[in-house]
Design a protein that fits this description.
Elements: H1 5-25, E1 28-29, H2 31-41, H3 45-62, E2 69-81, E3 84-99, H4 104-168, H5 173-211, E4 220-221, H6 234-244, H7 246-267, E5 273-284, E6 286-296, H8 306-350, H9 355-372, H10 377-412
Parallel strand pairs: 1-4
Antiparallel strand pairs: 2-3, 3-5, 5-6
Helix pairs in contact: 1-5, 2-4, 3-4, 4-5, 4-7, 4-9, 4-10, 6-8, 7-8, 8-10, 9-10
């Protein structure tokens, strides 16, 4: 059975209002506090911590020597000849230790160190991305809740006005049409309220998921984000990215790691040496003891590791190309984000700082004077709809600017207001 649209809209409004009312009872939380909570309680952080632990375990393995090998023999021997007929026990034992070619263990440890560094960079990149996501979702929640409250306020005034007009029993076509038009506008406002409630619920759920909390836990944002700072010169942003962008740092680390892998492949051309003492004893008539030092190594005649060397060099070239591509990609994204942010910032600075409050007062004033007959019907509807549209434009522009600012901070790896790193 299909659910009527008006019933579904009402259900969303009720759910949104319930969450909003619960949120009003919860203590206000600043956005910085929400970021701190997410950085401490986000469950995905454990994945990156485990990744670092894995890399450190591989580092220990890379620097460890191979275990020595112990071998032994036990048997019997009989000697016959020259009037001698004797039998006895024969045994032999040896301990063999494999020694890597000089420099090989150091190269493996260097590769493992770069793997630990990559894991740590991955953690820092995730933490920065998480902080940016929390800030964006917190502002989305704040703006959606404000739009929901404004739409509910205007809709309530419209419903009250309709009830008043019906009680007056207006005569004539014009008052009747105005009443019907107001009723239609109330329905549209209810739809706007439902959409804002739905956006608020979605932002709340995503915010709590990032914080590692119950999805329906109410959140009251203490205050809107601070003003939007001016950007440093574009050349400064690009320079910051070369030392602070986590993606570029990872590409550089991967290139370093691949260089060590090339050196390791060349080193593995030379064989490992296995050596150790060997002791044998025979008890067949006389006791005979033999001690020796055994040395063994493969001869690099057929396999000189050329294939692995070529493959490692190819991967090094790939790492170099990947670094260059990432540098161009990061620069392009910085330029795009900086241009978009400056456009939004200039637009925000052209606004009257009190425009939202003044529009709200104008909407209330238009409603009061329309009831008194001092404001025409068209002006009343225009003021009410303009108030909501202006609020949506204000919050959408600020949200876009905040998103571009967060993107720039991720791309440069530093706060925009911070000095040169």
């Amino acid at each position: 059975m299909r659910t009527p649209i008006i019933t579904l809209t009402a259900a969303i409004c009720v759910a949104g209002l319930a969450v909003a009312e619960t949120a009003k009872q919860s203590p206000p939380i600043s956005i910085d506090t929400l970021v701190t909570q997410a950085l401490a309680e986000n469950p995905e952080l454990h994945f990156y911590d485990a990744e670092i632990a894995v890399a450190k375990g591989e580092k220990r393995t890379a620097g460890a020597w191979q275990n020595p090998e112990i071998s032994g023999e036990l048997g019997a021997k009989r000697t016959i000849g020259d009037g001698l007929d004797a039998a006895g026990v024969v045994w032999a034992a040896s301990v063999q230790q494999t020694f890597e070619w000089p420099g090989r263990v150091s190269l493996r440890k260097a590769i493992a160190n770069r793997q630990v560094k990559l894991a740590e960079q991955g953690l820092e990149q995730f933490r920065s991305s998480l902080a940016a996501a929390v800030r964006q979702k917190a502002y989305e929640l704040l703006s959606a809740q404000q739009q929901q409250i404004a739409a509910a306020e205007v809709a309530a005034r419209g419903e009250e006005l309709v009830a008043t007009l019906i009680q007056r029993e207006p005569a004539g076509v014009t008052p009747l049409l105005e009443t019907r038009a107001i009723e239609a506008s109330v329905l549209k406002l209810k739809r706007v309220e439902a959409e804002a409630a739905k956006q608020a619920l979605a932002a709340l759920f995503e915010l709590n998921q990032l914080r590692g909390r119950l999805l329906a836990e109410p959140v009251t944002i203490a205050a809107a984000p601070a003003g939007f700072p001016a950007l440093p010169p574009l050349a400064e942003l690009i320079k910051r990215s070369s030392v602070g962008n986590f993606e570029l740092l990872q590409r550089q680390t991967e290139l370093e790691q691949q260089g060590f892998k090339v050196r390791l492949a060349k080193n593995e051309t030379w064989p490992s040496i296995t050596t150790g003492p060997v002791v044998e004893q025979e008890y067949a008539g006389d006791q005979e003891t033999r001690a020796a030092l055994a040395v063994s190594l493969p001869l690099p005649l057929w396999n000189q590791n050329k294939g692995n060397i070529a493959a490692a060099k190819g991967r090094e070239l790939q790492a170099q190309a990947s670094l260059r591509v990432s540098q161009r990609e990061i620069e392009r994204r910085i330029r795009e984000a900086a241009a978009a942010y400056e456009l939004h910032r200039k637009e925000i600075h052209r606004w009257n700082p009190k425009i939202a409050d003044e529009l709200r007062e104008a909407a209330t004033l238009a409603d009061r004077h329309y009831r008194l007959g001092a404001v025409p019907f068209a002006t009343y509807l225009e003021v009410q709809s303009s108030y909501l549209e202006a609020l949506e434009a204000i919050y959408s522009t600020k949200a876009d600017a905040l998103q571009e600012l967060a993107e720039l901070e991720l791309l440069t790896g530093s706060k925009i207001t911070d000095p040169k790193p």
